[in-house]
Amino acid sequence: MQVQQVNWVEVPAGLLRRGTPVDEVAAVASRYAGTGVPVEWYMKEAPRTEIDVPAFRIARTPVTAGQWALFAAATGRPAPQGPTDHPVIGVAWAAATAYCRWLGERLGLGVRLPTEDEWERAARGDDGREFPWGEEYRTGLANLVDLGIGTTTPVGSFPEGASPFGVLDMAGNADEWTSTPYAPYPGAPAEVPGTEDWAFDRHITRGGSFRHDRDLARCARRHGAYEPDLAAIGVGFRLAAPAV
């Protein structure tokens, strides 16, 4: 059976300025007050910590419906909905990890979901930028709710919204699974919940989807699948693998 090759981006080992400083969280919440997101949700990003992230590879774009269709046909799963060049959405975490294993066996690679830190490193690069493309939000650089499209777009449709490493769609289009279960960051403020019992799945998602507002385009924003209809909320995924 045909297996589509992955357009990998090499992310070098480097420093990640992860999260948001505690003393800046209130200002962040105020800056995005129009989205209706309470300050407590931003507290999960604190504290700012500098960590070394080893080199890895990440897919330039999310897994598409066309790529998923090959997996579905090989494993007897339902065929995906939507155009083949759009990100596949409605994928549960366990199914996403199964896809990684299946593709990895065929490519002879350790294909997996990125960790939360790897995802943020790929989005932010070497600095602490607010968005993958820079410090300021600009409508038209990502498929978020402000565009009014209301559904996915072909992957890679917003090249000017690329991250410093050239990774695309790290904001909007599909909210992306990571391999990391939710937990407060070490040293987090006391009011940050130890678990998110209200989440449909305990794993962190990143980047936001077509139905989300600009706050979820932020590189530091930690999210999750909080509703069971994963297609309606636009949950998809992208691949990671060890560095060459």
TrEMBL record:
Please list the GO terms describing molecular function: formylglycine-generating oxidase activity; protein serine/threonine kinase activity
Residue ranges annotated for the Sulfatase-modifying factor enzyme-like domain, each copy included: 7-240
Q: What InterPro entries does UniProt report for this protein, alphabetically?
A: CTDL_fold (IPR016187), Sulfatase_Mod_Factor_Kinase (IPR051043), SUMF_dom (IPR005532), SUMF_sf (IPR042095)
| Keywords per UniProt | Kinase, Serine/threonine-protein kinase, Transferase
Extract the coiled-coil ranges from the record: none
Gene3D superfamilies documented for this protein:
paralog of FGE (formylglycine-generating enzyme)
Query: Mind telling me what this protein is named?
Result: Serine/threonine protein kinase
Provide the species name: Streptomyces venezuelae
